[in-house]
Amino acid sequence: DGSEHAFTVAYAATAELLRPGVTRYNLMAGQYRNRAVHDKPSVFMGTVRHGFSNLVTGYTGLIGAEGYQAVAAGLGFNTRLGALAMDLTHARTELGRGADHQGQSVRLSYSKILPVIRTNVTLATYRYSSSGYYDANEAFILRDRGLDVRSSQYADYTGRRNRMQISASQSLPDGWGSFSLNATRQDYWRRRGTD
Q1: CA distances from 66 to 14, 94, 108, 165, 183 (A)
Q2: pTM (predicted TM-score)
Q3: Are 159 and 139 in contact (CB under 8 A)?
Q4: In degrees to the nearest 10, what's the CA dihedral of 51, 53, 54, 56?
């Protein structure tokens, strides 16, 4: 009838949540490129997410490349306190010279939006990785360097043990954009100190 109605939908990058019955998937194939790495392996990635109810979303994914495979599965939960997610990733890395590794990484994340003041808080993302776990980027760098696991240089490229990330974003009055704050702390398996 020509009338207009406007409303604001509070939006936050909530942890993997979908509405009931909704399924989303992504497929990707390509070539890994990094100026610091000479090798350019072919890479395949796929993810599937499904909303089981208003409270629970399940998701899984995999990545495959020559000498590297990883598979992940997790659940996201919609609660009155915010969105929670937990997932587990298992990775297998072939570094050559018989240095094959397997490891796991567990991630916990929390996200909350405060609609009245338009603040989006990803209060915490915590990841714990076992000593044999490498993400794809770490695996490709290690293999390209041809580093022996006993070398001192190897320790400089080993994976993170613990990683904690806290971030928040605040919308400013119309026309002024937004303000964000991020903090990360991580430590490593084979060397001392933290970032």
Answers
A1: 33, 9, 29, 31, 34
A2: 0.77
A3: no
A4: -70
